[in-house]
Each structure stands twice: as structure tokens, then as C-alpha cells.
Amino acid sequence: MADGASAEAYSTGSLTRGTFSPLDQLRLFERKYDPVTRAIIEALPLDQAPRCLELGAGAGSMSYWLAERAPEGEVLAVDIDVSRLESHRAANLTVHQADIVSEEFEEGAYDLVLARAVVEHLKDPDALLTRATRWLAPGGWLVVEDFYYLPAEHAATAVGRTLVGGYVRRMEDQGADMGWARHLPAALARAGLESVGLRLTPAGPGQSPADDELIGLRLRQEGHALVDGGMVTADELADFMGLLGRPEGRDMTTLMVSAWARRPAE
After folding, report:
1. Cα R_g (the chain), whole angstroms
2. Cα distance between residue 65 and residue 77, in whole Å
3. 142 vs 118: CA distance, rounded Å
4. CB burial of residue 83 (10 Å; 0-12, 13-18, 19+)
5. How far is CA 219 from the centre of its chain?
6. pTM for this one?
């Protein structure tokens, strides 16, 4: 899920630096969002033996699930860092290390292409969608999920406005387009796909226990960078962390935009 960025770009620091690994964060991310992604794929009219390609497979939960769901099919899990992927998990699973910005895959070969929390980090998201459309078989489905950050100035608390604003600026400094996901359904149509579907999943403090745990872990890993960069103070970060799990701290900071569309049958 972090394809397009080098392995060295993963944060390993925290307020108590080194306490949590990046894998901890990936596992929590999967626990929060896998049910949404699985439900979308389950509703698609896929063949019993689909060929599947996951771009930015991260820690592998979706690739493993796809391989188990359709044992007669094939799954290719791709990431720039494959150290967290286990190719032995299934006989029909292949792990491939590659940068999706430059890597090409077989045209017309895949019944499903999945890209989650990947495309917003690319310099030219639309170019990737155009290429991914070519990799689809006629009638194949492209599922893309990315995050749209709601305006920080509209956050429910003053400390939230400061912290979310700082986090977004840091992500933008790293090259992420925090508003691109809003364009996603239209971008799929521009790429020549049809039957575009859309689902929104809110995220933020208090949205679920998984949200609070994921936010807390992320800030323990990366919060020091916000403080060191002067985007927030240590006290502001501590205040925000203190509100996690409390009703008065509940907020909706992002929407995961899930969109899917089909390559026209020939």
C-alpha cells in the first residue's frame, strides 16, 4: 500500500522512538479497511478463477484473501518493498518487487486490478489508471481506494485543526496529493471504464476503536516529525492523543474513497 516510495521512507520513530514497527501500522490499517475492500470485491461479477493483480500490496492481507477466495485463480502481489509479503502463503500467489510508476504488466491479462492507498502518492495518478486499464481483460474490474482529507480548518477541536493541518502539510511535502481521491470516479470514466461505482468510508478519531488505535500508533511513530518540523508543539500532540477514545474528541478527518469500474467487453 506504499508502492511508489522507497523502503527507507517508512517512519521508524515515535514519541518513544522505535517502540512500534511499520508493520504494526500496516496490520491495523488492514484491520480497519479490509472488510470494506472485501465487500466491494465480493459484489463484483468475477469469474471463478480470476487473474488478480494487487498494486502496492503492503503486508499482503488482500492478496492472501484473494488467493484463498479463488484457489483456481492467480494472484500477483506487487510492491516496491516485498519484505512483508510471504509468497509461500498460497500456491496461486506470486510476489513481485517493482515500482508501479515504471513497471508494465501483461496487457489484457487481469480480471481484477486492485490499488489501495497507492495512487494518491504518485506524481501522475491518471497515467497509472490509464496503464492499469490496459492490463485489464475485457470485462475486467479496476478497484482503486484512496483518501480524501477533509479541510483541517473544519476539524472538531482546536488541537485537531492544528494537528491535522500539520500532518497534511507533511504528507504534501512528501509528494502526496491529499485531494486527488475526490477525482477518482471521474478519472476512472476518463480512462475509458464503465459501470463506475463509489463508496465512502469515514475515518478519524472516535469513528471506531480501530481508528483510535491506528491514529495513536501512527502518531507515536510519526508525531516526532511534526514536532521537529515545527508544525505542532509537543503539548499539542499530547493533547490530541489525550482526546482519543473520548466523545469530545470525535471527528471525521478523512474519507476513504472506494471506486470501481469495468473495462468494456469486446
Report:
1. 19
2. 11
3. 13
4. exposed
5. 17
6. 0.87
Give the whole-angstrom CA distance, residue 41 versus residue 49.
14
User: Do 141 and 171 form a contact (C-beta atoms < 8 A)?
Assistant: no
Query: Which three cell numbers, joined as nine digits, stand for 147?
Result: 483518501
Helix locations, the chain, DSSP H:
22-42, 61-69, 125-135, 158-173, 184-190, 209-228, 234-243
| Burial classification of residue 72, based on how many CB atoms lie within 10 Å of its CB (0-12 exposed, 13-18 middle, 19 or more buried) | exposed
Find the angle CA(31)-CA(33)-CA(35) to the nearest 5 degrees: 85
The set of cell numbers assigned to 218 is 501512527
Distance CA 57, CA 75 (A): 11
pLDDT in tens, 65-122: 999 999 999 999 999 999 999 999 999 999 999 999 999 999 999 999 999 999 988 8
| Sequence-separated (6 or more) residues with CB below 8 Å from residue 34 | 61, 62, 65
